[in-house]
DNA sequence: CATGAATGAGGTTTCATTCAT
DNA sequence: TATGAATGAAACCTCATTCAT
């Protein structure tokens, strides 16, 4: 965890002395900050609360982070570190058909991201992007772009294998992205997406969405070409 | 020094000092508030800014709205709550099949809500719900619940007419809701949903989503029952 | 009631036109102001409340009184107008002994001042004197000084007639003043003088005080000279 | 620009910047608050003024007291509430007769309360009671009630010992309370009680009042029963 | 390194006062 | 004259940030 790079810029030359839990401090603060920023929003979270939850004093927080804004940036950077490379490799090796692949993909994504604290970052970015264009750009570059690229490759693979229809990938990616995004927001913005978020079973939600995405809700599995509808718009 | 000078553009010819327009004020303030709340967030918007954009002074705002929070409630009421009844009536009269209905429904929703300023409220609520539980409850009751009920009725109608598969409505509604929500968020949270929001053609997005939702992305329009996949979860 | 003199200074030359209830307005405002200032204090009373209670609009109040402070001054001036001359004459004619005179005096004072709204002025002055030295001086000159002079004459008369002990009038006046003042404050500052102000019967209070003042609480009506105690200080 | 410079006089030699004196702060703030509240009234005193007089900044005040109102409560507690127990004990031990006791009592009260800054609280409560019912209730319970109870016990003791007439204590207490209250008000509401407050010698005032209360102003120390007057009302 | 007392800019809200009608 | 919509100074209180210890 090379966190030190992120905040210690001016005093890189300082000799390292006592190392009790010094190294752990920034991480604890980032964890606390993520929790609180997601839970209460950035503006509504007081710096002292973050410090308290991390078990340190207010002053210590500002020892590690120049400002509350810098703390937010660090939180985002820390929690979106490129896991995409490993996933990409993993998916490259995957041998099932597209149905299996997308099913595996969405479920594994929920287990590894959606169900974890990291999913709060999405909510956080959505709320604060306007106020922090710099980290929004960073987030787009580090998360959105690789994420969409990954999904495009999966869809392209399906098309190439003749398992998926010929899709305009620029729009088809959102068929996969939108349900995932919505699930995260439902989890973190209780009430404004879903009536009772606690009652929503993520796995069943994913299954339902996959079923629709792959085979449609329609009973017309016969001759009625799916392309017909496009014209009716 | 009246701040109004800084913002009023349309009536630069008038000697704008203490115009008395009791009727028009609330509407102007609500418009200004919607713009700013969506643009900067509720907490980050100062009451004085809202007043200035409406071309009045700080004090005038509090003449019409008891508090900043009450102003937000009024914004929600003004832009969403009152419109469900007419939509409901409209959809009840619709005579086409489910494909036509959902297509009509999503497109008309985009034209009347998604493409308008009112769509910013969704984003707004998502960001501020945690901090203003009272408003969140109000929004859930006035917007989320009626909206989902409307979609459930449309899906149920399709099932009853044999046009849609037998669906678990508790989960199927999100097949419709998620893409709509995502489209709004893409519009208002530039960058954190979509790479380049400006390039996303809403109508084409809706068409793609509808095509997927209704008929699936899969080429397997044959014997492969859509129910099979559920087991693979 | 030559109230006009009090507020109309700059436009005394203006011709008098329509006289509906114009003349009565200032008086109604002063009445309302007295009530509210006494009830809630000067600072806590809003100008609009005064106007509302007088049945006019906020603007009208400022038509008659230059400012809220001027209104207060007018209230005080209006309600302490020299009733002392008539009382003085009345007391000059009184023919009873000192006990009868003081008894009559305190009771009549309660009936004519203490029990009326005018008594609120005392409370008002006490609270606001520091903030309005000008009217405090006015009040002292118009009320305190004549009041004390009156009491001094009554006591002096008693001494001259041999009914009262030889008193140092500079201090003896307060033997009469203090109980009266306390009674008014008990009435207007509920709770901070008396536990339950409503239970205090003014006439019984006055009788008790008079009994003490005139004859003492002590049973030692015998040889123990009242002057003895003075030495023990 | 630290306002403290404007008020701090005693420590001009110290480079007064950010002195840390957690222990001393509350006391300094309470002293400053008492002074200003008494001098200008509660509502008219700005929180920042209190802080400035205590030599700290606005924020520091709210570090120690949740609100301005809470500060007032603390002022009352600090200066009055806690002292009744010791006084009560002291008076229980007193062995003189009622004349001696009341004389001792009123003089000691003046020395310990009346002559000190604490006496300003009485005036303060009188002015603000209506606007802060919670504080008024607190004051009644903590100060008025115990104070009256103490005086009742003293009078009852005198009656039991045959030194005082059979009194209706519900009214007789005010024979003692009223002069004390008046003396305080004379001191703090200069001009509206007494012509020239500076000329009033408290000790002489108390002696005069005691003399009257105990033995009466009347020369009729003979057979004329003090009860006669009651009928003449 | 760590603390937490101290700071003060900044936000919401109130209300005396003005002025166009 | 009378109105009441509009104004904006000022008050309370919060909290990010600093700095003496």
TrEMBL record, chains A, B, C, D:
Organism of derivation: Polaromonas aquatica
UniProt name for this protein: TetR/AcrR family transcriptional regulator
Coiled-coil regions listed: none
InterPro entries: Homeodomain-like_sf, HTH-type_TetR-like_transc_reg, HTH_TetR, Tet_transcr_reg_TetR-rel_C_sf, TetR_C
Superkingdom classification of source: Bacteria
Entry keyword set: DNA-binding, Transcription, Transcription regulation
Pfam family, any one: TetR_C_11
Keyword Signal: no
Chain residues forming the annotated DNA-binding region: 46-65
Keyword Transcription in annotation: yes
């Amino acid at each position: 965890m090379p966190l030190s790079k992120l905040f210690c810029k001016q005093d890189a030359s300082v000799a390292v002395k006592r190392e009790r839990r010094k190294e752990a401090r920034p991480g604890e603060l980032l964890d606390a900050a993520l929790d609180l920023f997601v839970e209460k929003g950035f503006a509504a979270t007081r710096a002292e609360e973050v410090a308290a939850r991390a078990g340190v004093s207010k002053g210590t927080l500002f020892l590690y982070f120049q400002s509350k804004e810098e703390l937010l940036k660090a939180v985002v950077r820390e929690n979106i570190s490129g896991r995409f490379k490993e996933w990409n490799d993993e998916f490259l090796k995957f041998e099932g058909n597209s149905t299996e692949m997308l099913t595996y993909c969405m479920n594994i994504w929920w287990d590894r991201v959606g169900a974890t604290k990291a999913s709060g970052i999405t909510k956080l970015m959505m709320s604060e992007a306007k106020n922090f264009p710099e980290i929004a750009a960073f987030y787009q570059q580090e998360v959105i772009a690789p994420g969409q690229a990954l999904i495009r490759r999966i869809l392209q693979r399906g098309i190439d294998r003749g398992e998926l229809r010929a899709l305009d990938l620029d729009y088809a990616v959102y068929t996969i992205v939108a349900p995932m995004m919505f699930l995260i927001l439902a989890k973190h913005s209780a009430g404004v997406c879903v009536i009772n978020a606690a009652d929503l079973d993520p796995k069943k939600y994913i299954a339902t969405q996959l079923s629709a995405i792959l085979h449609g809700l329609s009973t017309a599995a016969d001759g009625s070409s799916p392309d017909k509808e496009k014209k009716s718009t």
